[in-house]
Every structure is written in C-alpha cells, then in structure tokens.
Amino acid sequence: MSIVNIYIHDENIYNVEKKPPEKPPKPPLYHSRFEHQVRQETKSCKDAHRTMGFSKIPLPGPNEFLKKNCGPRYRATKSAPVRLCTSHKPPVPKPNESGACQVLKVVDFKKENIKKVVATSPKKARPRYADTRKGDFHDLERSGLMPIYMCRPKFGKVPQYLMRRKKDLAAQKERLIEDCAQQKPRCTYISQEERVELLKGLKKNWEKLQQEYQSLPLLTDTVPKMIRKAKLENNLKQLEKDILTIENNPYIYLYDDEPKEAA
C-alpha cells in the first residue's frame, strides 16, 4: 500500500458555506425637471381662504344690530391657473380639422449625400517631409525649409516696371487726345454760293467737251481717233452724272477719306 502526499492544492474548507447573494443597489429615483414648476402651479390654484376665512372682516356699525342671514357674504373668485411652463407643445390636431395636417416633404437623403460628396472639392494634402528612414513626418511649412515670400520687403507692392508702363500709357492717351483736338474735321459743308459756282463750272466744262466731241471727224478709221472719241464720251457721261447729283441734292458734304499726314 502506497501513500500519496499532496502538497499543492487549491482546496479551502472556509468556502464550504454558501453566502447569500448580494442584492444589487437600487437605481436613483427619477426626478422630473418640471417638478418645481408643477408644485408652484398647484399651490397657486388653491383657495387661500377655504378653511380659515378672510383675515379682515368689516364690522357692522353701532346702529345696526345683527339679524339672521344679514352678514356679509363673499364668494371665492376662480382665477385662471397660472402656467409657468410655457414650453409645452401644441395639442394634437383632430382628424376633422382642415389644414391641420402638414404634408411632409419626402427627402431622399442618400441622393442628397451623393450630390454633396460629388460637389465637394477634394482636400489638399499638406506638404510634409520625412527626416528618418522609419517615416517620421513633419510639417514642411513650419520647418523653415520653404521660402516664405510674405516676409520680403517688396511683397504685396506693385513692381516699378508696371508703374512706368502705366505712366507711358497715360501719356500716350493724353497725346492722342491732343492730336485729335488739333486735327481739322474731315467732313466739310458746301455753301449755296459754292454749290452754284460748282454747277456753273461743271456746265462750262460740259459745253467745251461737247464742242470737242462735235468737232470730231465722222469717220473714225484709226485707233487714235477711236480712243479720243471713247475718252470724250466717258468724260461727258461723268460730267452729266455729277451735274445731276448736285442739282438733286441741295445739301452737300465733302469727306476726306485719306487725311494728310503731318510732316
């Protein structure tokens, strides 16, 4: 027969008796946030003189003796209850009331969110730099490695070449205005005297050309004769056209299409 000695064990005889289960603690009582307002409302609605009567009763005069049912009678006036809580919601509308029910607009929040996401611009990544091989990132703008141009003395100022350019453009504009003011108008009006003299001169020229045309030989058998005859006919037609134009138009203006350039 062998004996087994157990030196390591977890048995404990003190835990044999079962202890009663512990009761969980009770949750705290519920207290409404309108508790004080309700108490004030209930106190304000109570009659102050229900049991004790009025504090001051008018006494009868010395000449009046008391009789049955001749004393003063007071009736308690019911005042409207004072509502201290004004944040109550309106009552539920009845089904027979017209216009009480508002038509709710159905909104598809999925589509609205998709539109917002599509319309939003992507967030720009801030410039960073890594100073170790493990990838420790740091802000590049605050590191001093990037040049900050706003610290320069000329930052935000108009360059000198732009100022000179503006002055040159302004001077050129002033010169153009002065030149336009000095130039004579291209359109001139012919007076009636000049018009009559012009008609007389054109008619004299027409008479001279007509005499030359009538003095031509009847036989035009050579080339020079044909050229001279055609030239006189063209000049006569042009003079007749000019005379007709001046006679039909009493007011005549002359316009110079090619102004003379100043030397």
Question: What would you say this structure looks like, in words?
Answer:
- The protein is mainly alpha-helical and 263 residues long.
- The protein contains 5 helices and 4 strands; from the N terminus they run ααββαβααβ.
- It has helices at residues 35-45, 109-119, 160-182, 192-214, 223-248; strands at 128-130, 137-139, 187-190, 252-255.
- The strands form 2 sheets. The chain has a two-stranded antiparallel sheet with strand order 1-2. Strands 3-4 form a two-stranded antiparallel sheet.
- The longest helix is centred in the C-terminal third of the chain and has 26 residues, at 223-248.
- The mean pLDDT is 80.
What is the radius of gyration computed over CA atoms, rounded to a whole number of angstroms? 60 Å
Number of strands: 4
Instruction: Give the structural class.
Output: mainly alpha
Overall mean pLDDT score?
Answer: 80
N-to-C series of helices and strands: HHEEHEHHE
The number of helical runs is 5
Main sheet makeup: 2 strands, antiparallel
Q: Residue ranges: pLDDT <50 for 5 or more in a row? A: none
Strand order in the largest sheet: 1-2
- Measured as a percent range, the helix fraction is 25-40%
Looking at the structure, what is the overall shape? elongated
Strand proportion, as a percent range, falls in: 5-15%
* Straight-line distance between termini: 148 Å
